[in-house]
C-alpha cells in the first residue's frame, strides 16, 4: 500500500504531536517528519520529499505563508495545507494566495478532514 507521506510544521511541540497523531490515525497516511520552523521545514522537504505538508501559519522567522510560496516555487513541491486558529471564512482566501491548496482551522483538523483535503488535492 502506498502511503501519503506527511511533514508536520508547527512551533508548538504539543500541536506538532497532536497533528502527528491525527496523521497516524488516518488510514493511508504516514508521518515522515516534523519541523519547528519554516526554515527547518524547507530543508526537511528537500531531504524527505513528503507528499503533503501541514504548515502552521504563524511561525518564528519566516511565516508559513512565505514558506509555502518557497515550496510551491520549487521544481518539485508537495501539497501544502495551512493551519492556524483563524476562522476559515476570515482567513481561508489569504491562505490560498500563497499557493497553499487549502486552509483548515486547527480545531477542525481530524482524520476525515485530512483524508478529504488530500482526495480533493489529488483529483
Properties at a glance:
single chain; 123 residues; alpha/beta; Rossmann fold; 5 strands
Q: Ranges with pLDDT <50 over ≥5 residues? A: none
- In CATH terms, what is the fold-level topology? Rossmann fold
Q: Describe the largest sheet.
A: 5 strands, parallel
Strand content: 15-25%
- Radius of gyration (CA) equals 13 Å
Q: Number of domains in the coordinates? A: 1
- Give the H and E element order: EHEHEHEHEH
Explained architecture:
This protein has 5 helices and 5 strands, in the order βαβαβαβαβα. With 123 residues, it is α/β, with parallel strands linked by helices. It has one domain (4-54, 66-121): Rossmann fold. Strands 2-1-3-4-5 form a 5-stranded parallel β-sheet, sandwiched between helices. α2 (38-48) runs parallel beside α3. The longest helix has 13 residues, at 13-25. The chain is globular, with a radius of gyration of 13 Å. The two termini are 19 Å apart.
Topology:
Layout lengths: L3 E6 L3 H13 L3 E7 L2 H11 L3 E5 L7 H10 L5 E6 L3 H9 L5 E4 L5 H11 L2
Parallel strand pairs: 1-2, 1-3, 3-4, 4-5
Helix pairs in contact: 2-3
Short description:
This protein is 44% helix and 23% strand.
